[in-house]
Design goal:
The complex is a heterodimer.
Chain A: H1 14-20, H2 23-51, H3 53-59, E1 72-73, E2 78-79, H4 82-113, H5 116-131, H6 134-161, H7 182-207, H8 210-218, H9 223-234, H10 236-252, H11 255-260, H12 278-285, H13 292-326
Antiparallel strand pairs in A: 1-2
Helix pairs in contact in A: 2-13, 3-13, 4-7, 4-10, 4-12, 5-7, 6-7, 7-10, 8-9, 10-13, 12-13
Chain B: H1 2-30, H2 34-46, H3 49-56, E1 62-68, H4 73-86, E2 90-95, H5 99-107, E3 113-116, H6 122-126, E4 131-146, E5 159-161, H7 162-169, H8 179-184, E6 198-202, H9 207-219, H10 234-237, E7 241-244, H11 246-256, E8 260-265, H12 266-271, E9 278-280, E10 286-287, H13 291-300, E11 325-333, H14 340-355, H15 357-365, H16 373-383, E12 387-388, E13 391-392
Parallel strand pairs in B: 1-2, 1-3, 5-9, 6-7, 6-8
Antiparallel strand pairs in B: 3-11, 4-8, 4-11, 9-10, 12-13
Helix pairs in contact in B: 7-9, 14-15
Classes of the chains: A mainly alpha, B alpha/beta.
Amino acid sequence: MQSTKAIPRSSYSPLRRAFKHGDRPWQGLIVLVSILVLLLVLGIGWKLWQGSAQARSALGWKFILPTLDANWNPALDQFQAWPFIYGTLITSLAAIVLAVPISLGVAVFLAELCPAWLRLPLNWMVELLAAIPSVVYGLWGIFVFLPRVVVPFGEALFSVLGHIPLLGILFTGPIPLSGSSRLAAAMILTIMIIPTITAVTRDVLLAIPNSQREAGLALGATRWETIWQVLLPYGLSGILGAAILGLGRALGETMAVTMVIGNSIESSPSLLKPGYTMASIIANEFSETVSGLHTQALIEIGLVLFAMTLILNLFARLLVWRAARRTPQEVRA
Amino acid sequence: MNKKLSVSMFVLIVAAMLLSACGTAATPTAAPVVPLTGNDSSVPTSAPASAATATALPAGSVTINGAGSTFQQPAMSQWAYGYSYVDPSVAINYQGTGSGAGKTAILNGTVDFAGSDSVLTDAEIASGKDLQMFPILAGAEVITYNLPELDATKDPALILDGNTLVGIYNATITKWNDPAILGLNPQLASKLPAKQITVVHRSDGSGTTEIFTNALTSFSSAWTAGHGTTVQWPVDKAGNGIGGKGNQGVAAAVQNTPDSLGYVEYAFAVSNKLPFAQMVNQAGQTVTATPDSVVSAMNDFANAFTPQLTAVIVNAKGAASWPIAGYTYTILHMTSMTDCVKAQKLVSFVNWFLTDAGAAKQATTIGFVSLPSAVQQQVLAKLGQVTCNGQALMLK
């Protein structure tokens, strides 16, 4: 398009034309990088699948089926992963239940109500929480958070909820005096995922056009009603996405959880008892495995965790799509 | 449009530079070893290998890589440092990757020697890789406890025996004032509380756990969970068990939990001033963990070595023997080493830390126990049988 000047025929070679504007190399580079990501995910999945082949054929479905009397005894070649699957699920879900309301509150405050002078420091603080290494959370957890916060909170939960039929199963106490329990892991995870959920939710709320707020107020809604009935539904898909992001982080968190959960294969499903998660059993046992089957069983746990996060992400996508269809604009996180 | 092209070229060039930088960064570490493999064919023709290699090689020119047990890592790093003064031409790298990873590494030929707390399995020996284990040090384990009811300065140490310990980890003994514990501790009878015992164990797979469960297995047939770097603790199922990661994790859990107990390495308990229980051994004597009582246990089992030079030294018969102890091993190839300069240096290093008084002192100050001579002789005899390309190596 740049000129009609006569250019020697030779400079019009197809190769040269393809590279002249730089579009093709860019395209190639970007496609290459995208394929690399895809290959990485497939490669990890394949390796986990392949590395656990013997365990899968030797242990079968019993390996991941729920049971109250699971055996994980590498010395005797007995492997059942349910206690770890349960531990991961219950601590992550409990963390989400605790973290979403708090994060939502902080995000609404930051986006809608916060005076300007407080906004920056508060933003910093929230982001700082995300920057603390998880091993530091673990240390702080063992020496401060568990004895001071988790133990009293756990005791209160036990006395209030522990005797309700059905729900009480989750709150059968008493909590160990050291505080090492699934509840401790869930509460540490809560603190760790609050920054993720808060930051995304805040950005979602800030991305909502002002016309929505003005429309709400113009209809006579109070500020509270505007936030609750206009803004939150509008940003629902993004907020769901934020929660799923948090859940993803909670599922895979290893170090802090290992340090506070008690690493004990319990038959009780209670939150107030010590437990174990998939990530922590792998971290704990992989370096000193007893037998080939033990290694394979640990890799199979990795496979289950991998599949779980994949399914969760698919589920999250579906949720976000459904929610996005209901909201008027294409607001996404 | 041209700008786009130049930007993309820039990205490609940077990427290429990064890649090539990685390539060059990797070579220097490999470089010092390369000339040696060329050397070793010429060495035997000019002079006896020992004399030539001791003087001719520049400092740090032979790199010997080892990996494995984290338990012996403190001693190995001390020795690697100490040996750099004995023979400056050798640089020894030891990585604490865990015994299992160490064994895998030497099977795959990625390291020259491995450290391990657990014995090679029959399958690993049968893989035809001529691997041999050499006990190099022993370590003891102690039961540390947290009883706020006791006064650490005035009250005597808690006393336990094998059956009681099995009972506690089996959750058949659940209270501190259980008759079994009271019977062993008449002096503390009035102070032991009617409270639940919180039992702490290692959560990570560990040689420490292997030694401890070896002991439990030997103490009583009531212990049915087996022995290994990881077992399933019956006390967990009973709801009173807590797993801590590493010695630190166990110690922290015990210190934070009133009325708890857990097992840790003797060295760790001593250096952190943790209180630990005395044990009644098989001979019925009450003993405490000391280097002497561990040496006594090693002597009790001095003639119990397998051809692989492994021995379990728990629940020893001697009146002075500490009942919970175990060896940590170095694993070497017996015949298949091909780089004879390196092989000679490696054997010399092992010989040095097994026999040198300074090396022994380095290990004992950090809580390990050196081999008594009855054991040491057998280990050195085996070490003398290591060959390289069919030629014997010297112990010096």
